[in-house]
Amino acid sequence: MTQLHGVVPPVCTPLTPERELDVRSLERLAAFLIENGMHGLFVTGSTGEVAYLPDETRYRALEVVAGVSAGQVPVLAGVIDTTTPRVIEHAKAAKAAGADALVATAPFYAPTHPLELPGHFRAIRAAVDLPLIAYDIPVSVGHKLPTDVVVALTEDGTLDAVKDSSGDLDGLRALLEADVPVRCFSGSEVLADVGLFLGAHGLVPGLGNVDPAGYLRLYEAARRGDWDAAKTEQTRLRGLFRLIHVGDGRMGRYSSAIGAFKEGLVARGVLAGGTTSEPMIPLNETERDAVRQHLAVAGLL
Amino acid sequence: MTQLHGVVPPVCTPLTPERELDVRSLERLAAFLIENGMHGLFVTGSTGEVAYLPDETRYRALEVVAGVSAGQVPVLAGVIDTTTPRVIEHAKAAKAAGADALVATAPFYAPTHPLELPGHFRAIRAAVDLPLIAYDIPVSVGHKLPTDVVVALTEDGTLDAVKDSSGDLDGLRALLEADVPVRCFSGSEVLADVGLFLGAHGLVPGLGNVDPAGYLRLYEAARRGDWDAAKTEQTRLRGLFRLIHVGDGRMGRYSSAIGAFKEGLVARGVLAGGTTSEPMIPLNETERDAVRQHLAVAGLL
Amino acid sequence: MTQLHGVVPPVCTPLTPERELDVRSLERLAAFLIENGMHGLFVTGSTGEVAYLPDETRYRALEVVAGVSAGQVPVLAGVIDTTTPRVIEHAKAAKAAGADALVATAPFYAPTHPLELPGHFRAIRAAVDLPLIAYDIPVSVGHKLPTDVVVALTEDGTLDAVKDSSGDLDGLRALLEADVPVRCFSGSEVLADVGLFLGAHGLVPGLGNVDPAGYLRLYEAARRGDWDAAKTEQTRLRGLFRLIHVGDGRMGRYSSAIGAFKEGLVARGVLAGGTTSEPMIPLNETERDAVRQHLAVAGLL
Amino acid sequence: MTQLHGVVPPVCTPLTPERELDVRSLERLAAFLIENGMHGLFVTGSTGEVAYLPDETRYRALEVVAGVSAGQVPVLAGVIDTTTPRVIEHAKAAKAAGADALVATAPFYAPTHPLELPGHFRAIRAAVDLPLIAYDIPVSVGHKLPTDVVVALTEDGTLDAVKDSSGDLDGLRALLEADVPVRCFSGSEVLADVGLFLGAHGLVPGLGNVDPAGYLRLYEAARRGDWDAAKTEQTRLRGLFRLIHVGDGRMGRYSSAIGAFKEGLVARGVLAGGTTSEPMIPLNETERDAVRQHLAVAGLL
After folding, report:
1. Do the Cβ atoms of A26 and A60 come closer than 8 Å?
2. Which of A87, A278, A281 would best serve as a mutation to test chain B binding (most B beta carbons within 10 A)?
3. Contact indicator for D263, D174 with CB cutoff of 8 Å
C-alpha cells in the first residue's frame, strides 16, 4: 500500500432490473478496468452507490471484484457508515470478502467534532488490520477533514492515504507539503491534471469507469511531466464529463451522474443494463440517447 | 396512530462499559418513562444513538422497549439509514421487533433532490405496513423537508406524522395550516411550548428522558390553554437543558448532550452507567458533577 | 427610548418612475402609518431599500419622515453600511436629518470575527449620541449576532434594543431571559405572535406598510394576553404575506416582496407608483393584479 | 484593457495613526510596486480595506495611485457597494479620480437572484464608460458568480475581465474554456501557479504588496512554461503567506491578514505604520515580531 498510485476508479455497481447485484456485468466491468491499465479498483465508493446497497450486496460486490482481480491490482473497499461501530462491522466484512485496503469517511448524520475524529479512525485501524484510507468528502459528511488531523493520523500510523473529494486544492497542497508519508488521491474528474500537478499520487475518477484509457493517458502524461498533453487529455475528459447533466431539471445531479456512467458502460458493451438504486430517478430514453451522443463525440463508440 | 399525541421522548440507549446494550437499564428507563405518563416511546432516534448502534443492537433495543410497553403506549422505531433500500431493511426488522410505527428521515450522505423524496417515502411505506413518520432533521441530512412534499405525501396516505427537528417554526406552522391530517411533533426541548402554541400534536424532547414529568406538565398546561403555566415550565426546562453544555470545549455538542442525558439518568437512579458510543468523548468527573448540579438546581435529585 | 415598544414598521421608500425619491408619496405613507396607530417608524431599513439608496436619498427620506412625524412617534434610522467608519458617517447624517435612534447591523462584506463586534457597536455609540439598536440579520451579514455579545453591549450601555430578523427564536428567548434591559423587536411578519408570546417588546414587520391595522390588532391582542385573537390575526396576515411570492420564478424573492409591498400601497391609494430600485426586476401587470387580489382577499380594498 | 495581464496587486491603503489616509506611504507603496514590475495596480479592493474606507478616502487613494502611475501601468478601481445605484456613484467618482478600469462585485446585503445580475453589471457599464471587471468573491457577497452569466455579459460587451476570488478552479477553467474574450485573474495567493497553469491571464494577490518580486518571478516562470520554477516560487510564497495567521485566536482572519500585510510593508520600509481600520483588532508587538520573522525567513529583510 505504500506504493499505491495511479488511476483507481470507484467501480460502478451494476444492478439487474430487479435491483439485485448483476454479477456478470460486474465481472465484465472489473476485467474491463484492469485490461485498461487501472492501477487499483475502489469498490463500494460513492460512485458504486454504496449508500444505497444493503450490506449483503456491498460484500458480494467486493467478493466479485476481488475474485476478478485475484491479486492483479489492489482492491479498496469503501466502508461507509454513520459512525465508528457501524464502520467497524463493514471493515470486518470487507476484510473477509477480500479487500486489500479500507476507505472510511468521517462520521456523518451524527454531528462530530474535529476532536472526535482521531478516535474514529484509530478505532477502525485497531479493529481491522488493513491499510486505511481517509475519504474526505464534505458534500456527504458536511465538513472537510482538517489537514492537521490527517497529518497526526499519518504520523501515528493510522492512515496510509487520503482520497480527496473536497475540491479544496489548497488543502490538498498543504497535505502534500506536510512532511508525512500520506499518499494523496484526487477524487476530481475535472481537475485531475491539477491534482497531479500539485503532486498527488493518483486519481479516483468516477468517469474512469467509462473512459479508463483517457485517465490513464492523463496520468502517464503527468508522470512524465508532459503537462500540455495532460491538459489536452483533461480538456477532452471535461467535455465527456458533461454527460452527467443529461438529467438536469428532472432529477438530482447524483441520479443523473450515476445513471449516465452506467448508461455509458451499457453503450460500451460492458454492462447489461443501467438500472440505478431507489430513490434515484432513472434516465429516460432521450437522456440515454444524450449519453451515447457524449460518448460518440468523445470517440468512445 | 391517527391519535398519536403528547410527549414521546426519544429513548436513550443504555450501554454497558463494554458498549453492549444494557438491557436491565433500558427496561428500567422504559418503565420510568411510562410511569411518568409519556404518551409513546421513540426508540433508536438520534438521542438513542441510532447512528452509532450496530443493527443487532438497534433491533434488540426495540424488542426490549416493546416488551416493557406491552401495548401500554405506542412504540416508534427510528429506521435511520442513508437511502431507501437500507431503510427498508431496518423497517422490516423493526416491524418484526415490535414497532408500532416507523420514523424515517430523507436520504443522507447521497445527495438527493426534492423530486426524489416522494419515491423514498412511498417505497418505505409500500414495503412495510406500519404508520410512517417523516423525521425532518436538516442538521443531520443537510436540508429541510419541503412542506409541499410532506403535504403531498400525507394526501396520498404515505405519511401519518412528522417529527420536526428543523427549528423552522414557520415551516411547522405552514404544515399545521395545510388542510391535511398530518400529525406534527416538535423535536425542540427549548421551544416546546411554542410548538404547542402553534398547534403541534406533541413533543419529542431528548431531555424528556431526564425530566419526563416536566414535559408532561408543559404539555398538559398547553392542552388546557394555560400558556403562562406552559411558559413557566418551559423556562425551568430551558435552565435544565443547559446541562448539554457541560463538555463544551473538550468535545462536540452531541457527545456533551448525550453524555449529559445519560449521566442525568444515572443520577436519578435509572441507568447503571453513562457510557456513550465511539467516537464520542466521555464526560469526565468534573463534567458529571456539573450534570448532577444541574439536576439538583432543577429539583430532580 | 427605554419605552420603545409596539409596531414599528420598516417604511417603504417610494420612488418616482425615474427612481428619484417620491416625497409626496413618502409623506402620505408616513401619515398613513401614524394614523393607523404605529408606535414608531423605521426609515432606511431593508424594506426601505436602504441597500439601494444613494446617501442623499437616504438622508432626504429620513428628513421627510421626521418632518411628518414631528415628534408624534419616534423615528428610527437604519445606518447600514459595511463597517464602522462608513456606518459612523451615516449615523452623523441621520442625527442631522432628525433621527431619534439608530439601527446598525454587524459589519458585512468584510469578514468580521465575534471578538470584533463590540468595538464596532461601541465606536458607533461613542461617535453619535443617539440610542443604538442592533439589527440582527444573518441573511444579509452572514452570521447571527451572538447573544453574549448583545448582553455585554447592553450591560455597558452601548445598545438599547435589538431588531431580530434572524429567525432564531431560541436566541430571541435567550436574550429575553438574560437579566439586561435590552428591548427586543421581532422582524418576522409570520411569527409576530410567537415573538410577543416569548416577551418581545414589539414588531418590525415589512408587511406593516400594507396592513398596519392588522399588526396593531395582533399586538394589542397579545398585550392583553388574548392569544387566540393574536393567532387569528396572525393567520390572516400569514395569508396576506403570500403576496411576496407573486414574482416567484421570474425574479428574486426580494424583488418580489418589495415590489408587492409597494404595489399594495399603490392599490390602497397611498403611493403614486410601485417603482423599485435597480437591479430589482419590476412586477409585471399579471403580478400586480395578483397583489391586488391578495389585498382584496384580506379585506384591504 | 484587452491586453490586461500579469501581476496586479490589490494595493494596501496606508493609514496614519489617526486613521486618515497616509498619502506619503501610499505614494511610496505605489512606486515600490511599479518598480518591482507589477503590470497594474488595483486600488480600493478588499485588501485595500475598501469596505472600511469612507468615500472621500477611497477616491483620494485612487487619485494618489493614479498620480504616481501617471500612465505607466493601468490603475483599476474597486467600486464596491451593496447595489447598482450606489456602485454607479462610486464608478463616476472613480473615473473622475483617474481610474483606467472598474472592478465591481455582484450586489450584496440585499439578496439578489442570478436573473438580476445582468441588469446590475449592464447598468454600471452603461453609466460609466470604462472597462468593467467582475469581482467574483463569494466569501463577501454570499454566492459565486455563475459562469453562464459571465459568459453572456462578455458576449454583449459588458465585461472585459473577471477577478476570481471564489476558490472554484473548476469554474475558472470553465470560463477559460468558454469561447469568449474574457480575461481571467486569479485572486489566490496560494494557488497562483495553478491559476496560470489553467490559462489565467494574471494574478491579483494581496501578498503581492509584500513580495511583488516573488509573484513576478512566479508569473514569468509560468509564462515561459517552466512549471517547476513556478511551483518552487509558489511554495516559497505559500510559506510566507502563513504570516496571515499571526493574530489567530485573538482576532478575525481578516484583521490578522491585513495587519500582517501592512506590518510587512513597514518592515520593508515602505509604509510609515501598520494602522488598520475599525473595528479590526490591531496586531500587538508579539504578532508584529512574528510578521518580521516570516519576512526574514522568506529573505525579504
Report:
1. no
2. A278
3. no
What confidence tens digit (pLDDT) does each residue in C3-38 have?
899 999 999 999 999 999 999 999 999 999 999 999
- Helices A55-69 + A84-96 axis angle, to 10: 40
Listed residue (D155, D150, D152, D95) closest to D127, CA to CA: D95
What was the pLDDT predicted at B2?
A: 67
**Residue showing cell 507589477:** D38
Condensed to tens digits (0 to 9), the pLDDT of residues D239-252 reads 999 999 999 999 99
Does C191 score more than 80 pLDDT? yes
Amino acid at D133: I
Q: Tell me: the pLDDT tens digits for D87-135?
A: 999 999 999 999 999 999 999 999 999 999 999 999 999 999 999 999 9
| Cα–Cα distance measured from residue B22 to residue B49, given in angstroms and rounded to the nearest whole number | 14
A143 pLDDT above the threshold of 90: yes
- Say how far apart CA C190 and CA C203 lie, in whole Å: 11
> How far apart, in Å, are the Cα atoms of B283 and each of A149, B161, C172, D21?
22, 35, 30, 53
The type of residue at D256 is S
Q: Give the count of beta carbons closer than 10 Å to the beta carbon of residue B228.
A: 9
**How would you classify residue D44: left for phi > 0, otherwise alpha for psi between -120 and 50, otherwise beta?**
left
Q: What is the pLDDT of residue A106?
A: 98
Three-state secondary structure call for residue D186: strand
d(CA D99, CA D130): 8
Residue B24 CB-half CA count within 13 A: 6
Nearest to A210 by CA among A196, A189, A195: A189
For A22, phi then psi, to 5°, come to -95, 90
pLDDT digits (tens, 9 = 90+) for B13-34: 999 999 999 999 999 999 999 9
Q: Which of B94, B121, B95 is nearest to B107 (CA)?
A: B121
pLDDT attached to residue C61: 98
Distances (CA, A) of C252 to B146, C165, D46: 19, 19, 27
Burial of B157 (0-12, 13-18, 19+ CB in 10 A): exposed
CA distance A53 to A97: 16
Residue D2, pLDDT score: 67
Can you read off the three cell numbers belonging to residue D58? 477611497
- Interatomic CA distance for residues A173 and C256, integer angstroms: 44
* Cell 393574536 sits on residue: C230
SS3 A162: strand
Is residue B140 within 8 A of residue B168, CB to CB? The reply is no
- Chain A residues within 8 A (CB-CB) of chain B? 19, 46, 49, 51-55, 80, 82-86, 89, 107-113, 115-117, 119-120, 123, 139-142, 250-255, 277-281
How would you list the strands of the sheet with D101-105, edge to edge? D6-7, D202-203, D183-186, D161-164, D132-136, D101-105, D75-78, D41-43
Please report how many Cα atoms fall inside a 13 Å half-sphere around the Cα of residue C72, on the Cβ side. 18
- D86, C113: Cβ pair inside 8 Å? no
pTM: predicted TM-score of the whole model, two decimal places:
0.97
Q: Name the DSSP class of B136.
A: E
**How large is the ipTM?**
0.97
Residue D214 has pLDDT above 80, yes or no: yes
- Mean pLDDT calculated for residue range B190-213: 98
Distance in Å, alpha carbon of B228 to nearest chain C alpha carbon: 10
d(CA A61, CA A79): 13
**What are the angstrom distances between the C-alpha of B111 and each of A14, A168, B142, B143, C30?**
20, 19, 9, 10, 49
List all chains that touch chain A, counting a touch as 3 or more CB pairs closer than 8 Å.
B, D
Are A and D close enough to touch, i.e. 3+ CB pairs under 8 angstroms? yes
